[in-house]
# Entry
Amino acid sequence: MRDKYIRTIETRNEEETKAFGKFLGEHAKAGDTFCLTGDLGSGKTVLTKGIAEGLGLSDEVTSPTFALMNIYQGEVPLYHFDVYRLEDPSMIADIGFYDFVGSDGVSVIEWADLIQDYLPDGYIRLDIKRDFKTGSDRRVITVYQKGESMAHVLHALEEREKEL
# Structure
């Protein structure tokens, strides 16, 4: 099944990118998975910081590039994966991936395109691109859905767009 295009969001700076992530976190619930793609420096970790804030987490979120996964405890935990340095995608199970994704927390997977064959059946994918044509701080975030899960987040996004 192909990922279904939902909409494109533009942010003008890091604060707006983080605020969009916070919005997503406020509407996420246990078992949800956000798959992030984009070049180095595109804003994947900034978006994740916003998701953590939306979940009510106060910990300083950092990219788990070398650890591959960070856990942030809260009412709903955040399982933050960065698979950029994973040598072989099939090794994803070795870091406990399947124990956490789809469980009691919200999962965020940076560089999700590198483990495409190992992703869960349902998620929201956010492709983040820097928009150099209009300024280096601008981001174009394209939202996709796979499966039928996370409709609650997409519904909230639809309502948000109506208000703008």
In short: The longest helix spans residues 14-27. The chain has one domain: 4-163. Residues 108 and 127 are 13 Å apart (CA to CA). The mean pLDDT is 92.
